[in-house]
Automatic annotation (TrEMBL), chain A:
InterPro entries: PqqD-rel_X
Lineage: Bacteria, Pseudomonadati, Pseudomonadota, Alphaproteobacteria, Sphingomonadales
Protein name in the entry: HPr-rel-A system PqqD family peptide chaperone
The organism's place on the tree of life at top rank: Bacteria
Automatic annotation (TrEMBL), chain B:
Species this protein is from: Allosphingosinicella deserti
Identification of the protein by name: HprK-related kinase A
InterPro entries: HprK-rel_A, P-loop_NTPase
MF annotations from Gene Ontology: kinase activity
Gene3D superfamilies reported for this sequence: P-loop containing nucleotide triphosphate hydrolases
Alphabetized SUPFAM superfamilies for the sequence: PEP carboxykinase-like (SSF53795)
Keyword Transferase recorded: yes
Keywords tagged on the record: Kinase, Transferase
Transmembrane segments: none
Length: 92, 287
C-alpha cells in the first residue's frame, strides 16, 4: 500500500544557503527560517512542485544521494513527517 | 509634552518628550557634543506620569512611544534618565526596519568591525567600552546595525550603560562624561558614560564586519577560546537579533552573508585584562 503523498513549494519559494554541511533555509510563504540536515534538503528538492510518496522520493533522490539507512523508505517517511510538522511539505 | 529633546545617534533620530524637566536635563548633559538631530525623528519616546496625579505625588515614569510593551513597569522619577534610555532601546528593538539589529557591542579598527555578542551579563557592553578607551573606535554597546544592502555595520554610539562591578573600571574617566549613579534599577546599579569624542565624531562612518566573538565571563573560568561552527553562529545571531523575523528575506540574506564571510570564536575569561588580551590576539590572527 502506498503511503501518504506530499508536495513541497516550488524552488523559487525557498532560499537556501549551505553552512558547514547543514542548510539554512528561508521559506518565503511562512517567513520562517529552518536549519536542515541531509536528507531534508534533498527531499524538499525532490518534492518541489511535484507530488510523491516516500517511495517516489527515494527513487528521485537515490540517483545522486546515498541514503545510509537499513530501511531507506521508512527513513524517508519519518523525515517527511518532520518536514510536514515544520510546514515545509504538505499532504495532497 | 512639557519638555522635549531631539537626539541623533548614528543614523537614527529620536525625539524624547517628558512631563518632567530633570530626565531631559540629564540626557542633554550626557549627550553633549552630539551632532544636531534631524528635523523629523525616526522614533518618539515619551516619559509620562504612570497615572495623571503621579506627576507630583511620588512620581512614577511610564515609558511610551511609537511602540510600547503593554507590561513595561513604570520607574520612579529619580530613574528618569534610565527610562529615557530604555525607551530609546525599546523603539529600536520593536520598530527598526532598515537595519538588521544585533544585540551586541561593536568596536572597530582601520575600518573593520569586531562584533561582541552573547547572553546578557556576558560582558559585551563592558568589553566594548574598555576597548573603546584603548585604541579601538567604539561603535556601540547595545545594538549593531547591519545594513542588508551593503553588509556594513553602522555605529550606534549611545551612552554606555555601565552596570554594577563595571562602574569601578571607569572611575578614572573624565567626570564630565559620566551620568549620575542610578541605584535600585531592575539591573542593579547603573551609570552612563558618554562614548569617547572620536566615537561621536565618526558616528556616520560604517565599518565592514571582520570578526565575531561570543564572550562569556566567569570569575573562575580559565582564559580559553574555541571555534564556533557556522550553523551555530547563525542560530545564535538570530537569537541576538530583535528584528530578524520582521525583516523577512532581507534579514536572512544579510545574516547568511555575514556568517559565511566572517570568522567567529567563543571566548571564556575571568578578568577584563584577559579578555582584552584574547581579543587583541584573535583580531591579529583573524582570517
Amino acid at each position: 500500500m502506498a503511503g501518504p503523498r506530499y508536495i513541497a513549494d516550488p524552488e523559487d519559494q525557498v532560499q537556501s544557503v549551505p553552512l558547514e554541511g547543514l542548510i539554512v533555509l528561508y521559506h518565503r510563504p511562512s517567513g520562517m527560517t529552518h536549519l536542515l540536515a541531509p536528507p531534508g534538503p534533498q527531499i524538499l528538492a525532490a518534492l518541489a512542485g511535484e507530488v510523491g510518496d516516500a517511495e517516489a522520493v527515494l527513487a528521485r533522490i537515490s540517483e545522486h544521494f546515498d541514503l545510509a539507512a537499513d530501511d531507506p523508505a521508512a527513513a524517508i517517511a519519518a523525515r517527511l513527517g518532520e518536514l510536514e510538522a515544520a510546514g515545509l511539505v504538505r499532504r495532497v | 509634552m512639557r519638555h522635549a529633546l531631539a537626539l541623533k545617534i548614528g543614523p537614527v533620530s529620536f525625539r524624547i518628550g517628558s512631563a518632567w524637566r530633570e530626565p531631559l536635563a540629564q540626557l542633554e548633559r550626557l549627550y553633549a557634543g552630539y551632532p544636531a538631530a534631524d528635523e523629523v525623528a525616526d522614533f518618539t519616546v515619551r516619559l509620562e506620569p504612570a497615572t495623571p496625579w503621579r506627576r507630583f505625588a511620588r512620581p512614577s515614569v511610564a515609558i511610551r512611544g511609537d511602540y510600547t510593551l503593554p507590561d513595561a513597569a513604570p520607574l520612579p522619577l529619580p530613574l528618569g534618565l534610565l527610562a529615557a534610555e530604555m525607551g530609546m532601546n525599546l523603539q529600536m528593538a520593536l520598530g527598526q526596519k532598515r537595519y538588521l539589529l544585533l544585540h551586541a557591542g561593536i568596536v572597530a579598527r582601520d575600518g573593520e568591525a569586531l562584533i561582541l555578542t552573547g547572553a546578557s551579563g556576558a560582558g559585551k557592553s563592558t568589553l566594548a567600552a574598555l576597548l573603546g578607551e584603548q585604541g579601538w573606535r567604539f561603535m556601540g554597546d547595545e545594538f549593531g546595525l547591519l545594513d542588508p544592502e551593503t553588509g556594513f555595520l553602522h555605529p550606534f554610539p549611545r551612552a554606555i550603560s555601565l552596570k554594577n562591578a563595571a562602574l569601578a573600571l571607569f572611575d578614572g574617566a573624565d567626570p564630565g562624561r559620566l551620568g549620575p549613579v542610578l541605584r535600585g534599577t531592575p539591573k542593579g546599579m547603573i551609570r552612563h558614560l558618554r562614548p569617547p569624542a572620536d566615537a561621536i565624531a565618526r558616528m556616520a562612518e560604517p565599518a565592514r564586519p571582520a570578526l565575531i566573538l561570543f564572550p562569556r565571563y566567569g570569575r573562575d573560568f580559565p582564559a580559553e577560546d574555541r571555534p564556533v561552527g557556522a550553523a551555530e553562529v547563525f542560530v545564535r545571531l538570530t537569537q541576538a537579533s530583535t528584528n530578524y523575523v520582521s525583516l523577512g528575506a532581507r534579514g536572512f540574506d544579510a545574516l547568511t552573508a555575514l556568517v559565511a564571510e566572517v570568522p567567529a570564536r567563543a571566548i571564556d575569561y575571568g578578568s577584563s585584562a584577559e579578555a582584552i588580551a584574547m581579543v587583541e590576539r584573535l583580531w591579529a590572527a583573524r582570517a
